# Entry
Amino acid sequence: MSEEVQAPQRCAIIAVIGAPNAGKSTLVNAASGTKVSIVSPKPQTTRFRIRAVIMRPPAQLVLTDTPGIFNPRRRLDRAMVAAAWGGATDSDMALLVVDARAGMTEALQAIIAKLKKVKLPIWLVLNKIDLIPRDRLLPLTAALTAELTFAETFMISAEKRDGVDKLLQALADAAPEGPWLFPEDDLSDVPNRMLAAEVVREQILRMTHEEVPHHAHVETESWTERPDGSARVDCTIYVNRASQKAIVIGDGGSRIKEIGRRARQELVGLLERPIHLFLNVKEKSGWDESRMHIRALGLEDEG
Ligand SMILES: Nc1nc2c(ncn2[C@@H]2O[C@H](COP(=O)(O)OP(=O)(O)OP(=O)(O)O)[C@@H](O)[C@H]2O)c(=O)[nH]1
# Structure
């Protein structure tokens, strides 16, 4: 008698990094052309941390984003970048996507300088190989490997999907054993949920003092489609202390009301549909230990 042995689940959080125009979106889209996957509806809002969830059973690949801002001035931008690079270090690996035709540019050098401080396996993905002769790839690869150590190197054309499947399979094989971060049948809502949490989080950053944002975490508890075409969205803001809860709520609920009003307005603008947003503030110390999917969903800044 034979029994089917199910391979244990694997899950990798993968930071997709690269200079503007390197082909990150094209790669993510090409990668998502396979099986169950999601792609953020508005990838140009680089505040998204999750770009796509790609199923390669037994592996789930969660591709995350990093904004292309390296010298942020505003507090909010700083927080976003910190979150993004925090994201990189929370990841299991990073993909450095390089435009092979553009070669070593200033933007790429700035990213390399950042990546030197990131203790993660970095995979080099030389993209757009359809645009240049093979022999030009070697000097570029040599120049890059002189700067950084790469766990793996792939040469692809995201546009032509050349080499993308091989890359995904290698990522799936390298994914550490662990439970999937998202249930396979519940992927379609992830971008909307992420967006809602991000937008609320952004308004908290805008409307409270330094202390709170560093300790606040937003989760979208539910996203319910209504027959009239609108959606009901319930978000919970988790803070560590009662004092922070009081700040977020404000006098007589004034601040939370304003956070909700602005977040709803932004969501309506981004999604172009009616949204009913409900916010709930909970005190929950130690949430960061207790919820394992937080490293994927949270937007924690480093301060
Ligand atoms: N020929 C060729 N063009 C590509 C390839 N990959 C991406 N491109 C093109 O390069 C341009 C930039 O690609 P994107 O995917 O938008 O680049 P990105 O890294 O996401 O850019 P940002 O969102 O600005 O950071 C687009 O015009 C793509 O069509 C490739 O493999 N071959």
Notes: The pocket of guanosine-5'-triphosphate is lined by residues 18, 20-26, 68, 127-128, 130-131, 157-159 (CB under 6 Å).
